[in-house]
Design goal:
Elements: H1 2-17, H2 24-34, H3 41-50, H4 52-62, H5 64-67, H6 90-121, H7 124-145, H8 160-175, H9 181-191, H10 196-222, H11 228-255, H12 262-281
Helix pairs in contact: 1-2, 1-11, 3-10, 4-10, 4-11, 6-8, 6-10, 7-9, 7-12, 8-9, 9-10
């Protein structure tokens, strides 16, 4: 029973921190320090990644009509007037091309160097520094943006080149734990002149192939030989992460229509200092 309660708590933390730009990894490290799951290190490594599938399903359901490339209804840009091709939404296909282009840097590095990068950088020093550096970045960029207007206010206005550059920022998050995948891509998008709401939406869509790919990679390496306890923990964590993610995504999209990201920047700095001090002197 206690492990189920722990899985619920991990699911809550994943659902909140995956979408807010505050680093799910940093919070998972702290949570694991105080509430360890009674599982093998190999399964815990898998659990941290695969639990994200629950979170990503929230994006799939909430934004289905915004990115699904097929359908007759609400299709102002069909590939053809009649036949099967009339069900293809050209604007959504173009969006997916941009998403996949943005995923190329992280996908290549992740497939080739996943284990090496995890061994080199998965430590509290890297996480705390990444939390602080990108926290400062959020504050600096938002202060700069207060004096100038964004030039990209629609997903359609994101070019292939801009998508690729945002993907480079996502690569930074793939290399350095604590950066926050959503945090890195939002910072990159804001620097490139993308509005807050569009930056958040594009970040959510980028998560779909990235998280599914990362989960598949972990499952292939670990295999599907779960014990009953492991399967239960994994399913509960994913379900809780999904439910929490639905509310968090709705909150964030509403929040950034009236506010900037500076509060998350300050939060990251404080959390980074806490992580650094705790593991240096108490951990």
């Amino acid at each position: 029973m206690i492990e189920i309660l722990k899985a619920i708590l991990f699911g809550i933390v994943e659902g909140v921190t995956e979408w807010l730009p505050i680093s799910s990894t940093g919070h998972m490290i702290l949570l694991d320090e105080f509430i360890k799951l009674d599982v093998s290190p190999e399964f815990y490594s898998l659990f941290q990644v695969v639990i994200q599938l629950g979170a990503i399903m929230a994006v799939v359901i909430l934004f289905w009509n915004d990115f699904f490339p097929f359908g007759k209804k609400d299709n102002p840009y069909p590939l053809a007037k009649d036949g099967l091709l009339s069900y293809v939404k050209v604007d959504k296909v173009v969006l997916w091309i941009k998403i996949l282009v943005a995923c190329i840097p992280a996908a290549v590095v992740g497939v080739l160097f996943d284990e090496q990068l995890e061994a080199m950088f998965y430590n509290y020093q890297t996480v705390s520094i990444a939390l602080i550096v990108f926290g400062i970045a959020f504050i600096v960029i938002e202060n700069r943006n207060a004096h100038q207007h964004s030039r990209i206010h629609s997903l359609r206005n994101i070019t292939i080149q801009t998508a690729l550059l945002i993907g480079v920022f996502q690569l930074i998050a793939a290399i350095f734990p604590g950066t926050s995948r959503s945090g890195a891509t939002i910072v990159g998008a804001l620097l490139l002149g993308v509005s807050r709401t569009v930056a958040a939406e594009f970040t959510f869509f980028l998560a779909i192939p990235v998280m599914f790919g990362a989960s598949l990679l972990k499952i292939v390496k670990f295999g599907l030989s779960f014990t009953m306890q492991e399967a239960t923990i994994l399913i509960i964590g994913m379900v809780v992460a999904f439910v929490v993610s639905v509310f968090v995504i709705k909150f964030l999209m509403s929040y950034i229509k009236k506010h900037d990201f500076k509060v998350f920047g300050w939060y990251r700095i404080v959390l980074g200092i806490i992580v650094l001090v705790y593991f240096m002197f108490l951990g």
